Amino acid sequence: MTITNILVFFIFVLPFTFAELRVGFYTSTCPGAETIVREVVQRHFNQDNSIVGGLLRLHFHDCFVRGCDASILIDPTRNRTSEKNAGPNRTARGFEIIDDAKAVLEQECPLRVSCADIIALATRDAVEMAGGIRYRIPTGRKDGLLSDPELVKLPSPSLSVSGALQFFTAKGLTLEDMVTLLGGHTVGFAHCSMFQNRLSAIQGGVNPSMDPTLEARLEQICELRRAPNSDPLVFLDQNTSFTFDNEFYNQMILKRGVLHIDQQLALDPLSMDMVQNLATDDSLFQEKFANAMIKMGSIGVLDENEGEVRSNCRAFNRPL
Q: Which residues make up the annotated site Transition state stabilizer (predicted)?
């Protein structure tokens, strides 16, 4: 293990604070909280190291709706829909990891640790287990009291850089934040339905923005989609698919981007220089990613009067 992998990255001036968040929020109320979450994530990671991409996506999809309030975890009922019913969330995964951590935490510290904090901590731990640096994150989030699929408006993978950027700036994030956070795709997957329109066999021509060897491989994989109910998965980083590193950006420079928005990062003048810098320096990427994750994790933080700490991450404490 390199020193990068075990680095505890100190960001900004201690103690870090965003709204009501602070590092060490549970020191007195549930001192073992972060250790419990880490142990649960480690157990799942040992069984399936693809959970890293799933947790990153879960965290992103949660924060980009009403803020980081665990609204994505709410199950629909006979009388009420939830964010899980929204199209972009139907393939979300990692819910059972949050459930397992919550079950242990409720035994140790009932109604102390929010589901929103569990998502943030579990994602951080999974990234480290895949090779990322360990960064300290402020906690103290509250869980939301609303989960509405109509509010789920997420950037499409078919957007341009400027088009996607509008979603990020609306949440207080910058172009650099966006380019860095999309680097999380280094451990991600995508269904063929999310990019198949980029393949020449579908377009009826040549796609100059995609490496021909990659395109041929993707066409072969996505041929299986013709089978009923089939939508194969492919790696977004074709080289170090399970390692959290900066290789994603090198793949984009080589025109080996699977998703349109990923490939555009290396082609658009707005972002191409950032991609070049991140591709040549893994430590730089790791540090910027930690910064961007902390910043993203502060979006829409609820206070005591606006949220709650759920006893079950899949249901509000006071069902409507």
A: 57
